[in-house]
Amino acid sequence: MIEAAVRAKQFSHFFGPVRTLKDISLEIRRNEIFGIIGPAGSGKSTFLRALNRLNDLVPGSRTEGILEVHGKDIYARGTSVIELRRRLGMVFATPIPLPRSVFENVAFGARMAGVKGRGILNELVADSLRKTALWEEVMDRLDASALKLSGGQQQRLCLARILALKPEFIMLDEPTSGLDPISTMKIEETLRQLKSEFTIILVTNNTKQAARVADRTAFFLSGELVEVDRTEKVFSAPSDPRTNDYISGKFG
Amino acid sequence: MIALSAVSILLVITVYIFSEGTPIMFKYGLKKFLFSLDWFPLEKSFGLLPMIIGSLFVTGGALVIGIPLGLACAVVLTEFSSKRLRSFLKPVVELLAGIPSVVYGFMGVVILIPFIRDRLGGPGFSVLAASVILGIMILPTIISISIDSLEAVPRSYREGSIALGATRWQTTRMVMFPAAKSGIIASVILGMGRAIGETMAVIMIAGNAAMIPHSLLDPVRTLTSNIALELGYAAGEHRQALFATGVILFVIIMILNTIANLASRKSKP
Amino acid sequence: MRALLWLLTAVTVFILFFIIFYVLKKGLPVVSLEFLTRNPAEMGKAGGIFSTIVGTMALTLLAILIATPLGVGSAIFLTEYTQESWVTRVIRFGSECLAGIPSIIFGLFGFILFVTKLGFGWSLLSGGLTLAFMILPTIIRTSEEAIRSVPYAYREVSFSLGSTRWQTVTRVVLPSALPGIATGVILSIGRSIGETAAVIFTSGSSLHIPTSLFSSSRTMSVHFYILAREGISMDNAYGTAAVLIIAILSINVLAYSLMNRFIRRYS
């Protein structure tokens, strides 16, 4: 039996009285690229943020049901949220480099975690940048401001930033929605290469991207999980008519 | 916990001043304090009315001078002049707000008082002098905040009005002012606050006579001057009376601020 | 109508500039290296203003050292660690009230509490504490604004990388808010230098160079006031005023250029 990296059992989320996720039950397997598609407001991002408990920052956030990462309920009392967020790195839709140098950006998370020593950090940064295919482009301007990079480079920088924490999961929330096709392609290629080391969860509003990259895909609609299966099956012969409608562009 | 200490400091100050000042008021009767005309502290006579009226007159006078000049300046700088002139003059005006009040007072002594004395009569140290100097002092405040408010009005208002054939001044009067009203009123409130709280400059030019002024040329003493002039040597009940002056001043400021805030809220659409 | 407005404006601008130029014109000739480095003699009739310069700097420094941690700390607390509730509203209301209190009342309060009740006497300590209370609301307000204007996204990123709230505040929010906070501090410095009413009743008017926290000391603005009002020396009064004005104007210019840098960084 393949151990599930993430397992949701009747998991619901609320912002105050509003229910954003309704009884989600699914599994995400190790070392796969798991795609989540759905129209705006369907709860895809909320689910991602539930996984790293970023929703906790919003007052009135509440959950029901179970959400497990590697068998442990992450909403159980005593869970270290800080640890959790390091294990599940997140890349946002808009690249958000901190107003610092390239080097400092990538090293940021590691420094917070207590990693010291210039030598160690140097290696960590170089390694992470190589993994995101950014090293060649920035290796001679590590001290330049990260804000000067192009959009695609900034997004890969954000990816390198979480890789420096040696996470187990990489979660991406519509990572290429603001990028040009070439940058998009580079990032998708990077994800394919990273799959062997990490479990990747990709939320995207671009169904074609999911079709290209994801091993399995889930379709969310209005906070519910409508369908989840192997990508080819979801796109060629979906079980639910709503999935079909969405994929063929009838709405969303 | 740091913030809580900041708050507690605030509370401490307020409570303290009130606690020191109120007992004596009640001892001699609140009415007497507020309405008696005689301030002879050494003889235990503590009537603050002349000073209350002094403060109100002088502040009112300051507003009479400061508002028209200040608003005219603000309007000219936003509506009728080039952007370059404005970006030069506005910071300069704001810098002028930093000049110490004693310097203003000194200028009043050296230039204004002789002028009033020679041309208009009276001792020179007068309500008029204080009003003028205070008015000038609050100009930077009124000007810079009013400019900010006027600039914040969407361009479309101005353009729409001009497109309908109004002159610049009509536009300003009937469109821009109402739109910027809350900001302008805020600037006036701030200016008023500064005027009524001003001490050093007023001491230098207002004459400090503890009587109700009957004309603009009469000397006058404000609540603030009252405290500053006598604190140095006051003792015992005299000192408490000065605290009481502080309490009254505080209350008057609160009242004026509330009135002004209500007025501005009422005029909001 | 337009002509009237322009006239009024010209009058206003003229008056404001006139004051500065007049003081500088009469005062600058008096200002020399000697003036700045010698102590006052004969009650200020002769000599320079050195001890008052020292007094001013010491007092202002003390006030800033007290008020800045308190103020920035409060601002951090209000923005990062609490939600809008009656507590924060009370704090903010109190701060606004404090900002509206005239300086003489602070002087009164400082006199009774620090000079008399607590027994500090007329001293740098009394004056510094009083000034600190006076500038506290400004520092809280500007710090709060500066902190709020740091984009929320930065905080989200920091948290998502596994930072604690304290780390986020100190490593991400504060560094970005620093220019704004510094502007507020610098403006408060400018204000403290020109402050007279609160100072004269708390730190006294001794002409000696202050040697300890408990020494009485005279600031430049108090010196100016005494010189002018007692008619001791008009020349020295102008000189002191000139130094005061130049110091304050330079500080404000510094603050504004910092503020512009702050605005430019985020637009």
Describe the structure.
The complex is a heterotrimer of chains A (252), B (269) and C (267). Chain A is built from 10 helices and 10 strands. Chain A has a 6-stranded mixed sheet, with helices on both faces. With 252 residues, chain A is α/β, with parallel strands linked by helices. In chain A, helix 3 crosses helix 4, helix 3 packs parallel to helix 6 and helix 4 packs across helix 6. The mean pLDDT of chain A is 89. With 269 residues, chain B is mainly alpha-helical. Chain B has a domain of 168 residues: MetI-like (MetI-like fold, Orthogonal Bundle). Chain B has 11 helices and 2 strands, in the order ααββααααααααα. In chain B, helix 3 packs parallel to helix 6, helix 8 runs antiparallel to helix 11 and helix 10 packs antiparallel against helix 11. The model of chain B has no long low-confidence stretch (mean pLDDT 77). Chain C has 267 residues and is an all-alpha fold. Chain C has a single domain, classed as MetI-like (MetI-like fold). Chain C is built from 11 helices and 2 strands; from the N terminus they run ααββααααααααα. Chain C has a two-stranded antiparallel ribbon. Chain C starts with a helix and ends with a helix. The chains are: A alpha/beta (252), B mainly alpha (269), C mainly alpha (267).
